[in-house]
Prior knowledge:
Strands 1-2-3 form a 3-stranded antiparallel β-sheet, covered by helices on one side. The radius of gyration is 19 Å and the shape is elongated. It is built from 2 helices and 3 strands, in the order H-H-E-E-E. It has a single domain, classed as Pantoate--beta-alanine Ligase, Chain: A,domain 2, CATH 3.30.1300. The chain has helices at residues 2-41, 48-59, and strands spanning 68-74, 88-96, 112-120.
Amino acid sequence: MELAAVLPVFLLLVLGCMEFSRISLMRSLGSNACYEAARASMVTGATTEQAEEIVDNILGRLAVDGATTEVTFTDRNGAVTDFGDSQRVTVAVSIPYGENNPILPSHFTDITFDSEITLWTSRN
């Protein structure tokens, strides 16, 4: 009798803890992917495609689906430029929670985990 009363609550707590851990890991991987892609983009000869590939590789560790990546090179004044004239690189990653929630994907379509980082390049 006690098992029937306690088991649903216990399972809810265990599954809730697992989902919150997965959310935390997804957010952490998004931040790490931004940093690693921006860091790699600061190197002379790096391309936007290489930065996006780095993000995809890192997010692939958790099998994250539907993530979008935006890499922007800017000069000192914030104007968008190409890699050769850039002083800063900004990488933004957006991970949709609904596409990565195996339990109730249709209920979380408007939640996204956004990460963005801007790093100065090592060029003068």
